[in-house]
Amino acid sequence: MSKIEADVYLGLVHNPIYNKLGEVITTTVTNYDLHDIARAAKTYDIKKYYIINNLKSQQELVERVRDYWTGGRGADYVYNRHQAFSVLEIASELEEVKSKIEEETGQKPLLIATDAREYPNTISYKNMRKELQQIDRPFLIIYGTGYGLTKEMIADCDYMLYPIWGRGDFNHLSVRSAASIIMDRLLSDPWWEA
């Protein structure tokens, strides 16, 4: 397999999201998600990493953190954090992200959903990697916070990735860990061909 050349975007969805009771809520932003996923996104040449949260207070929090690391004392203190945060953007809803990507690329993005549950229409990482190589369109990988993406949001996606399973039967990764593993599986240089 050759290197992936597709334009890939990420979206961390905070609304609509399920809580543990199955209710639809808006989750709060976690500082670690901003830093760690931005760093991984920059490492894997993601075009933009969107925080999707409809609450103005949460958007302002993300802006303050981003501004500190891209233009404040933080940018002077840790330069590579400035580079990582250069891909971070904020949006109120998924439709806004899709519109921004279409505006930027001239094409509607194909949506890739992630979830810890398995669905009948799931696609393997190997086959998704082939799609990323062969289809000349932008892709948007969306990750859910809380207890996952709503069924409606998943139904609107073009692809549904298999859950991440390790060697054991435990399957409860943080979204930061899952995002990094998925990016590596889909976008890494094909080290196994060396």
TrEMBL record:
Domain tRNA (guanine-N(1)-)-methyltransferase C-terminal: 8-187
Alphabetical list of InterPro entries matching this protein: RNA_MeTrfase_C_dom, tRNA_m1G_MTases_N
Gene3D superfamilies: 3.40.1280.10
Name of the featured protein: tRNA (guanine-N(1)-)-methyltransferase C-terminal domain-containing protein
